[in-house]
Amino acid sequence: MNRPFSLKILKVSLLFLIILSSSCRHKCYDPSNPDCENYNPCDPRLKANADFELYEYNGGSINYETDTMDAYNSLYAKSKYTNDTIIWIIGSERIIQKDLIRSNLPNNVYTSITCIAIKTHENCKAQRISRDTLTKRMFCNGVSDDTSDFKAKWPWYGTYEGVDSDNPKTKYRVYFGQITKYNLPAMTLNGIPFGIPPQHPFYSLKDERFSTMGNHWGFKRMSFGEGIGGLAFNANCAFGAKGWAIREGSKLTIYYKYNETSYKEFIETGKYTTNQPERFSEIKKWEGVKISSEVLTR
Q: Rounded to two decimals, what is the model's pTM?
């Protein structure tokens, strides 16, 4: 083969690749992007946008988007877009700040939250200032300390039946109940881990060793087993069970772990010694459905 001819073909090929590469480079055609060649400072997407998210919030592990919350927690309104000014209107209040957190909402009614977004457009002669307004509502589920009211209005209360994901053939029940102590309703979880017998929901803390107390409760999510009010329940309640639960209608999912040392002792001997060395299980997943709005003890 003629070498000069081969070299010529090589040069032509390289030139073609360079041209092809240049033509395939990403070109910017976004009118809302100031770095693009067709940037339009009056593009509608640059206008103020008042859209926001509503969360149930307690400063701990409960922080998720919802339109219904428990009265024990706070409302957290979070702006979704960047604006120059955000004005919140809730009740008689008018607050200028990026996000909003409010507690003590009126119980068992919807509260309206309005967001007003304002944005300045220095380079848009057609519209120097844009403004947008959006209103959403949050329902606050209020529950009194009265037992009958608590059972009727607290959606977690009752008996659930399901299985662990690593043992799908063996069904067992878990229970959400109530302790009336310390002048407040303390919510409890029974049945985790598998093998704990059914128990009545109204018991004293020191007499009950096989329940765990929820320390962060929401309308649809809760966490348990980390201690409340400076008291450490992990040592002698439910074999140190700790984790979180998610409730969607009648469906319930629980993620948990527990002290395998004390649990094994209970299963083998029927006895339970407190302050066992902590050797926690891997995180387990339990899934089930609500079978009763009562705590079934049989």
A: 0.74
